[in-house]
Amino acid sequence: MAVSLFKQLQIVWDYHLVNQEIRKSDAIFVLCSYDLRVAEHAAQLYLDGYAPLLIFSGAQGRATEGLFTLSEAETFANVAKDMGVPSSAIIVETKATNTGENIFFTQALLKERNISVSSLILVQKPYMERRLLATFLKNWNDIEFCISSPNISFINYPTDEITFDHIASIILGELHRLKVYPTLGYQEAQEIPDEVWQAFENLTQLGFDEYLLTNDN
């Protein structure tokens, strides 16, 4: 059963990855979270010359309440500064609490500062890549973009703070959103192969259902 369980989780994990080639762009747009490895990855992209501007967006959500003393965006920005990114190259947006707000609030902030971008590198956690794609196709599709995340495998993703059960439950929650959110107008529909959805049904029946959508969310 353990082998079967891992294989099914790997199927879902692999589906979330869109495996896009990274191109030099006008800015690196980071959708912040609890995982500081994402901040490090984004900062390294900047240091490697992929874009002259680094944008961090994120307030303080359920996962980071009590974890960070500052907003997610400010915390990520401090990681980047510690790695050598100059403050002058960083924009911080601290109000967004979901992916849609990350987009809309950042669009407004760039407009307010008279900053025009025609291409972006989007940076998130690995298991958020496909939902990021679907959301941007729906809500910011008049620019060129590519998606990147830290190169961490499913088996190596858990840490002392991020447990295996948490990752298992959350990647199923992300898949559920990919199924439901297009019907609500939040994102573009993504084809979900039968093998992936069967794994979802099997795994949620085993109890990995903590992050599934309910009538309340």
Provide a concise account of the structure shown.
This protein is an alpha/beta fold and 217 residues long.
Task: Set down the secondary structure blueprint.
Blueprint: H1 2-16, E1 27-31, H2 36-47, E2 54-57, H3 72-82, E3 90-93, H4 99-112, E4 119-123, H5 129-139, E5 144-148, H6 164-184, H7 194-205
Parallel strand pairs: 1-2, 1-4, 2-3, 4-5
Helix pairs in contact: 1-6, 1-7, 2-3, 4-5, 6-7
Could you describe the 3D structure shown?
This protein is an alpha/beta fold. The protein folds into 2 domains: 2-14 and 157-205, no CATH class; 20-148, Rossmann fold (3-Layer(aba) Sandwich), CATH 3.40.50.620. Helix content is 44%, strand content 11%. The protein has helices at 2-16, 36-47, 72-82, 99-112, 129-139, 164-184, 194-205, and strands at 27-31, 54-57, 90-93, 119-123, 144-148. It has a 5-stranded parallel β-sheet, sandwiched between helices. Strand 4, helix 5 (129-139) and strand 5 (144-148) form a beta-alpha-beta unit. The longest helix is centred in the C-terminal third of the chain and has 21 residues, at 164-184. The two termini are 32 Å apart.
The averaged pLDDT comes out at 94
Examine the coordinates and then state which fold CATH places here, giving the name of the CATH topology of the largest domain. Answer: Rossmann fold
Which parts are unreliable, with pLDDT below 50 for 5 consecutive residues or more?
none
Shape: globular
> What radius of gyration results from the CA coordinates?
17 Å
Task: Report the portion of residues in β strands.
Answer: 5-15%
- CATH C-level category of the largest domain: Alpha Beta
Task: Identify the strand order in the major beta sheet.
Answer: 3-2-1-4-5
Approximate helicity band: 40-55%
H-E order: HEHEHEHEHEHH
Q: What separation lies between the terminal Cα atoms?
A: 32 Å
Summarize the main sheet: 5 strands, parallel
CATH architecture of the largest domain: 3-Layer(aba) Sandwich
CATH homologous superfamily name of the largest domain? HUPs
Backbone structural class: alpha/beta
Pfam families: DUF218 (PF02698)
Organism: Aliivibrio fischeri (strain ATCC 700601 / ES114)
Domain DUF218: 26-159
Protein name: DUF218 domain-containing protein
